[in-house]
Amino acid sequence: MKLWRIVQEKKYLLRIFLWINCIILLILLSFSSLIYVNVEKNVFQSEYEGSQKVLSQMKYNIDYLDTMIRKLTFSTYGSNDVKALMYLNDEETYDHMNTINKLNATIVANYPFIQSVYVYNNHKKMYYSTFGDLYHKDVELDKVLSASPPITPLKAIVRKMQTGGSSESPIYETVLSYVMFENVDEQGIMDGAIILNVKLDWLVDNIRTINQFDSRTQSDLYILDDNHKFMETDPNRSIAENPSAATIKQAFETSVSQERVHAGEPAGFFSSKVNGENFIVSYIYLENTGWTLLEAKPYKEVYANLKQLMDTILIITAAVFVGALLLTLSASQGIYRPVKRLMEQTSWSGAVKDGSLEPGLKDEFSYLTEVYRKSREQLYEYHLEKNNNTSIMKIYFLKKLISDSYSMNVSEFEDVLRLLNVSLSQDQPFMICVLRIDEYKRFLSHKSLAERELLRFAIANITTDALSQTCVAQTVDMKDDSFTILLNTADSQAESVEFVKQALVEAQSYIQKHYHVSFSATVSSPITEYTAIAAAYNSTLANSSYRYVFGTRSVITQALIDDNTGSVDIEHVWVMVNKLIEVVPKGNAAKTEEKLRDVFQQIRKLDYGSIMLVSMQVVHQLKKTIFEMNRTSKEPIAIPARLMSRELYEEETIEQFEQLLLEAVRSIHSEGEEKAIQGNQVVADTVKEIIDSNYFDSSLSAASISEMMRLPAYKLSKISKIHLGMSIPEYINQVKLHKAVEWMENSKLSIQEIMQRVGVENESYFYKLFKAKFGMTPREYMAKRTR
């Protein structure tokens, strides 16, 4: 019980103690974690670099073999004897059969990794083979060649090949097939091709050597082909049926984005859990073949020493924290000492009893806050009681003056002035000023009563001080959104109004800057007869409604209103409203907005009553027009919620009202505009497809595409620049140049032949386009590729 009483009495002291220790502990843990994470990262990076060396060597071997086989396939394809057999229509002769024997003797015999060579004849739909029978049938190859998308020439294809057995129980071997062809027929079938089938024995030997190099690491190496399937490198064990390998493959596909791999990050690593054990998986992408090499190493061997490091860090952290506890206790007592003295000095209030706080008070500071709150309430009640009657009487006498000044005699008027402000004099001209708080609904909802009273006090006093620099002012809070100021002014009417306007602008700026509240002000003309004060007040109060036209923080005078109104006939405005309503159903959003802005530009020049009448009529006509449009429309338009809301008519300025109507008009037309954008996208996609499919046509142009699509050329050009980012001729040239580069990189065609294939007839024009695009001539580009 004694311990609990100490806790209750010293809540803030304990809070200081705990907060300091929490901060120290957080710093220690952060520092320790940073050390551990940094060491872990270095170990991880070291293991990754070792794995990348292995994978890079493997990649080099595969790329080297791939390049050699590509060249061998391409050179074999260029043989005249092979082409004669490839395009043979008649019966085979001894010379044709001898071609197969030469291939067997020169290629298969000299390159031990070559399994066989096929020559495909499209006229006879058969393969001439160095493996097995001369007329060879390879069902698995036919499946690969007929698959979609079509194969790429000289790209390694991982497939199965029947090397023995019978049709009921065939024996398959995994091979890599390199296919070289140039043209396809109308059915998309190769018109003739050479196929080299490569054994995987060399690949199996490489992987076995790497996997058995260091038995301590238990690392495994896998190869994924371009379809993300395991390449079976071990004839005695299927990798695809290995659960661990399948898990690593799934983790790779989940953790590594293929777009990222192909876009410049061909190597990296990630962690994965296999059968409850963590592994570090390194990968590298082979650009030439589209394969991916994976190497998996177990965590437990990589991080053998990290656990010991972690234990050491924890022991050091605990020792430092214990020492920090003792230092924190002494520091907390020093910080708490001023609070303790304050508690002793204010304990007379009764909030502290028997060494503990009253219920509801969390700590010592909540107790001190409660003492301050009660003291402030007492002072506020005292000042309210002291000044309340005076404020009420000032409001009473001012209201009496502005309601029936015309019935007062001189002595009654002097009594009222004396009660309002002894400095006011009937010998000087008077002016009435009405202040109105802007955004009054927001002012009421976002401020507490105490805040509102403080802000009202600030507005009244700061404005009075500003006006008192040039005249005598008496300000009275009317207890609504307005204040009424009675002024004694100088003799000159023009100077008096100008001085008052300048003082009001200064007061507005100061209050906006320091209190974030704004108000508008309306000033009457100078009054020489006191009996006219009531009429002047009524006129000024009515003029304050013109805040709707001139906006918030405006200073309104009768001269300003006269300059703005009277130049526009309301009948003319009605005509403009009718023209606006005629434009809305046509679906032209820009034209509708323009007409709406023109209407409101003229509405602003009407008197206040006419402004409200015409504004409401515009809303009514817009709703009526939407109803009419929905009668004939297949897809009805929803009436914007703004047009149906009562709050639309409660906006304080015509600018806000106009903006809400503009938003409503935009929402009416947005659906039609979205459909137009979708239609333009379809046109752009069609133009792109036509160019991509007919780039070899030398007559292809913007005019021919325009005629083909039956659309105006200027419209197609505009759509192309928006959706393709360039004109149609520029896109045609871009496609032709990229196709030309593909032929330069993947064939031995001459520049003239390539020009014919991409549909360019003028050689100098082709050279000019190519150099502008790639910074070198076609001949220089081809020379650079062969180096």
TrEMBL record:
Q: Read off the PANTHER family from this record.
A: ARAC-FAMILY TRANSCRIPTIONAL REGULATOR, HTH-TYPE TRANSCRIPTIONAL REGULATOR EXSA
* Protein name (database record): Helix-turn-helix domain-containing protein
* Keyword hit for Cell cycle: no
The record ties this protein, via Gene3D superfamilies, to: Homeodomain-like, PAS domain
Report the PROSITE patterns cross-referenced here: HTH_ARAC_FAMILY_2
* Entries under InterPro entries matching the protein: Homeodomain-like_sf, HTH_AraC
Any coiled-coil regions, as ranges? none
